Structure formats: structure tokens, C-alpha cells
Amino acid sequence: MGVVIIDGSTVRAFVGEEEQFKKSVDERFAALDLNRDGVLSRSELRKAFESMRLIETHFGVDVATPPQELTRLYDSIFERFDCDGSGTVDLEEFRSEMRKIMLAIADGLGSCPIQMALEDDNSSLLKQAADLEAAKLGGGGGGGEAKS
Ligand SMILES: [Ca+2]
């Protein structure tokens, strides 16, 4: 369990690193595809959001939300991901929706840094965003100043 400080620009910079972001999202996808059929089912995606804890922290929904409410919420998330209505989420759909979600989080955070307690979970995208920024700051003279 660690604490990181992130704001909108941290998250946006992470999403902006095309290759790194894609790699992170792809790894996430692979980890979530429990039965390894190359697509995410409704329950696989639900597990993903439960583990990312985005619902509790960023969708304005109380943690004590009744289970049927949560199910409805997760269903609506699934339908957002499943653009073509195929009943499963493929890698392309996952990538594009994760990008939108991360950017929405970035907008939500704005320039107001928040402290986040993160589980010891290296697959957390927000933690990776914070790590990326830390690596840049600590990298020392590598150029590549953040542009705004
Ligand atoms: Ca699957």
C-alpha cells in the first residue's frame, strides 16, 4: 500500500505516452481475460472495475450502493465498452474506452492534486501514471519537459 499524488496532468501525460499507455492497457486486458479467449465478458469487465476501484472513487457512487444498483451501473459501463454490441469487449474497444476514461479522470482531477492510497497493485493505471511522472522528474536532464 503506497500513497501517490496525482493530478490531471499526471494522468494526461500517461495517456499521451502512446506506446507505454497501450502496453499498460494491453497488459491489463490480458490479466482481465481470465479464460483467455481474447475478449472480455461482462463478468470479466466487472471484476476489472471492482479491482480498479474507479467506481467508488470517480463515478460519484457511494461505496454502500445496493448490489442491484451496482449491477445496473456495471451493465451500463459494459455497454459503453461494447461499442459494436457484440456482447464482449475486444482489445480495440478496451483500449479506446480506457483512454476516454483516463482522460475523463484527468478532467475531473484538473490541476488540483489529490493524494491517492493505492493497493500494492502494479497493474493500477493510475499508479503507473504516477510512476511515469516520478520517473520523468527523477530522470534528470533527459529533456522532454512537459508541455501544456
Ligand atoms: Ca474472456
Secondary-structure map with pairings?
Layout: E1 2-6, H1 8-16, H2 18-32, H3 42-52, H4 54-58, H5 67-81, H6 91-109, E2 114-118, H7 125-139
Antiparallel strand pairs: 1-2
Bound molecules: calcium ion (CA).
Account of the 3D structure:
The protein is mainly alpha-helical and 148 residues long. It has one domain (2-139): Recoverin, domain 1 (Orthogonal Bundle). The chain is built from 7 helices and 2 strands; from the N terminus they run βααααααβα. Strands 1-2 form a two-stranded antiparallel ribbon. The protein is globular, with a radius of gyration of 16 Å. The two termini are 31 Å apart. Residues 141-148 have low confidence and may be disordered. The structure holds calcium ion. Calcium ion is lined by residues 33, 35, 37, 39-41, 44. Keywords: Calcium.
Based on the coordinates given, report the CATH architecture: Orthogonal Bundle
* First-residue to last-residue Cα separation: 31 Å
Please summarize the sheet with the most strands. 2 strands, antiparallel
Q: What's the pLDDT, averaged over the residues? A: 81
> What's the domain count?
1
**So, the CATH homologous superfamily?**
EF-hand
Low-confidence stretches: 141-148
Main sheet strand line-up? 1-2
Note the beta-strand portion. 5-15%
CATH topology: Recoverin, domain 1
Q: How would you spell out the order of helices and strands?
A: EHHHHHHEH
Shape: globular
Ligands and ions found: calcium ion
**CATH level 1 name:** Mainly Alpha
Note the total helix count.
7
Q: What is the number of beta strands?
A: 2
Fraction of residues in H or I helices: 55-70%
What's the alpha carbon Rg, rounded to whole Å? 16 Å
Structural class by helix and strand composition = mainly alpha
Protein name: EF-hand domain-containing protein
Keywords: Calcium
Pfam family, one: EF-hand_7
InterPro entries: EF-hand-dom_pair, EF_Hand_1_Ca_BS, EF_hand_dom
